[in-house]
Task: structure prediction
Amino acid sequence: MSDITPPKRPRRWMLYAPLGLAAAAGAGFYAMLQGLQDGSYDPRGVPSVLLGKPVPDFSLPALEGVDLPALAAADLRGPLPGPVLVNFWASWCAPCIIEHPQLMRLAREGIAVHGINYKDRVMEAGAFLQRHGNPYRRLGRDEPGRIAIDWGVYGVPETYLLDRQGMIRWRWAGPITADTLEKDLRPLLRRYA
Amino acid sequence: MIGELGHFALALGCILALAQAILPLIGAHRRDARLMALASPLAGAQLIAIASAFGALLWAFAVNDTTVSNVVLNSHSQKPLLYKFSGAWGNHEGSMVLWVLILALCGGAVAGFGRDLPSALQARVIGILGLIAAGFLGFIIFTSNPFERVWPPPMDGQGLNPILQDPGLAFHPPMLYLGYVGYAVTFAFAVAALLEGRVDAAWGRWVRPWSLAAWSFLTLGIALGSWWAYYELGWGGYWFWDPVENASLLPWLIGAALLHSAIVVEKRESLKIWTVLLAILAFGMSLLGTFLVRSGVLNSVHAFANDPARGVFILALLMAYVAGALALFAWRAPKLGGTGIFAPLSREGGLVLNNLLLCSIAAVVLVGTLWPMFADILFGAKISVGAPFFNAATAPLAIPLVAAMALGPMLAWKRADLAGALQRLWWVGALAVASAFLTLLVAGYHVWPALGFAAAAWLIFGAAADILDRIAAFRRPSQAWNRARGLPRAAWGGAIAHAGVGVMFAGLAGMGLATDALVALKPGEATRLAGYEWRLERIRDVQGPNWSARRATVTVLDGARVVTVLEPEKRFFPVGRMNTTEAAIHTNALRDLYAVLGDERDGGGVLRLHHNPLAPWIWFGAVIMALGGGLSLSDRRVRVSAPSRKAATAPA
Amino acid sequence: MTRWLFFCLLLALPAWAAVGDPNERLPDPAKEAIAREIGRELRCLVCQNQSIEDSDAQLARDLRRLVRERVAAGEDSAAVIRFVHQRYGDFVLLRPPVTAATMLLWATPILALGGGIAVIMLRRRRALAEAAALSPEEARRLAELDRGAA
Result:
């Protein structure tokens, strides 16, 4: 067959194509593994679509039995006196307990922290604040979880940072640990102060 | 003590594998018969070492040795023995040991059955297998020691995830690994051919049985996993296009292409370069799956391995083997000789079309699986690629593939007569069209199920037409029986596997017509679904070996006749404090009645009921495909190993 | 498969503990079918890689209810999907929208098929050219030899 005639100009590039693709994929995988270690690549992280935008319109009732004013979008429209945190939480959520001391510390430092209580019972939410302390200036109650959907919340706890113009600048899904507070949140609070 | 012996056996196996890699390869290079002769005994010794290590691991699980951390994390004394064993390979470390054990078995098989192979080719194949084994044994020893001790030993283990305590899942990983690792052998043959600079019919005849065996096992493994998802997860779904599922589908698709192109190498000594590339890619896809599942880069997987050090190690192995082989391919492939000339309309042309479409589908699945990760790293975009994408993107490729599947076997080698082939298939086409219209008539306007039934009829009757044609049943009916007996088993196997695909399509189409109901019933109340009356009798407590459960009793009636009594359960496993739902399924091979028990309230319970027409055919189809593969494997031409004189007289 | 399960169990245990709530389904089967089709396009963000129709995670339930409310109110599928997309971004869509970042993804079937056909054509043309480089008589004899070898 063609073995008899010597091949003229072999199209070498075609034979190199699989190697090139494999090498590119390998480089990509290596970048992912590196990113996994330094945190720049997180296969589970989902960015908020609200970044750089004002909060969606909403008005939530106050939590009965807790002496805190209710929360509405009007309270979060700029200009604000300083950066504001909005924290979605629930008494049944274990990571919320882990994050609570950090919220308390921020509140003591004078940062405005507002809360939205998500799918919770009134009694248990109140008891939670009594036991762990209350970091919130305003507290809205979102029992059906409908406002949370407007914010794009996909689990509790979840925390949003608003700048003085009332624009959402940062969203953290999961508990704010002491580490998160120092490494991620503090620099942002300074920047938007 | 046994654990230390197991660990030692792994280390010994690693050293033996290194020797098995280096000595025969040098021997083959220098044409040194003594070094080449070392290949088989070393492969045997490595097999014994790995088998001992695996035995030690099984022993630790069987006696519930709580000084071994792997046992503590994955087992419990109260577990049934089968699940103690399956717990041994139901975790990262243990499954890696199973992986290298199967690799060692393959090496042993090439050593044992490959005596008729040209000795240099055999030495090279065994050497490459040793190279692969050494890498993965190193991975186990350095990053994933299955015999790690804990001190002080806890009183008992933490138990295996209850959802994995299931007979279907006990055999799912071994089947999958038999498939994945089988492609290591075709890979080794491909690399050996590149090193030798020669591919001939004898090579094709050796690669074909291995790719057949690997593909058949992979088919069974994937089917087992999908069947388990169907009955265990309780949502009635069977395929989710999850990245981990896709990772097993990729070698299956490439392997199916390899299976077909190896025929062309064997029969026509054509498509050699392409076949070698497919053999490399099939194993590459197996390794890619291993990397995705165990490195943590995937969105879907996390619990198996979160250790980036493991990820880097596997990536290094993946690149060393696959990129190494592809570099060798780019360098040496031109030596393998060009493609023969054949008309586009020919058996070869049909097989090329099959390869083109299968590989295009594989490309879609591969890119769809990896794109979310690469879009993230390249553009910072977070996207999802799920079932709607895969269905939309693969269907236009699957339709011509199905169309060609019945047609291809009717075409003659080199130059075929399309009109003649179509003439012999006209009744098959008519039946396919009739099935589609019948579906629309009976079930209403459901396009995809109608197409699915058309595909099923086309493939099943197309396979029948192929066999009838080969035995000349219409032209010379008196000799048909003798011709049928004389027909090579490979011909039967091919037709049966194609019919199996058709049976699977019928199941998929049937599931497209599935109906379900979600109802809250009190004892004595009933609901109607799919023409049956489903009556909840009672809900009560039951006690199992390592679980307690609430069990509902649902009587299904067709008029006054009791069809079946379904008993779905909600199980609670105290060890690990986990709940599982156990769906109750009644099948009569034509449809499944499927019930799941949900929350209980006000003395009643929530039930989700499904009527799934032809659901079991999905897995029957897979079993038939694997049987077809097995039958081809038993063909005399394949079984009797390639005569070495053929290699000698191959065109130089 | 196995691994996927481990993961899902970690995040969304309730997915296996419950089967859904009859009250959440729409009484009109046609509208329920539309809602289900929409639900299969939307990803349950907590239990990764399942659609909201296939999961019983809390968020999936909420989104299922939301989809059904909007369908019941007479909104068309595109509007419902747009509503969820605006809140959760591209990540929630199991059928990724065509953007600069997904062009290559959506082009894969055409690229793979087209590329494959191009390679086959190129190789064939070269093989034919090689055959034609022989004299027509040689080519004919070669073809004959070829046939004889089969």
In short: Chain B has 21 helices and ten strands.
